[in-house]
Design goal:
It is a single chain. The model has no long low-confidence stretch (mean pLDDT 95). This protein is globular. With 108 residues, the chain is an alpha+beta fold.
Length: 108
Amino acid sequence: MEKDCVFCEIIRGVRPADFLYQDDSLVIFKDIHPHAPIHWLVVPRRHIRSINDLSDQDGDIISQMILKAKEVAKDHAIAESGYKLLFNVERGGGQFIFHLHLHLLGGW
């Protein structure tokens, strides 16, 4: 965990968040600045700065993030109506919090 990372602070309980899911590897919580009726963030507990910082050993975490997003979408009845999964990569790609995270957007 990084000392000054907002998502690491949320994971540690230093900052509040509205959690939908937690396990040993991932957390899912509501985005505080939603861009859709449903806007959740799927975040690994381990600090990985960006997609660009993934190593060969990180393949499992990406799979876990996508599969858990699919499961949560189904559990919250948005799988059939549709949703988006989005990784923003680096500042030019829209990443503003430098802790790997997957946006799950839906509910339109």
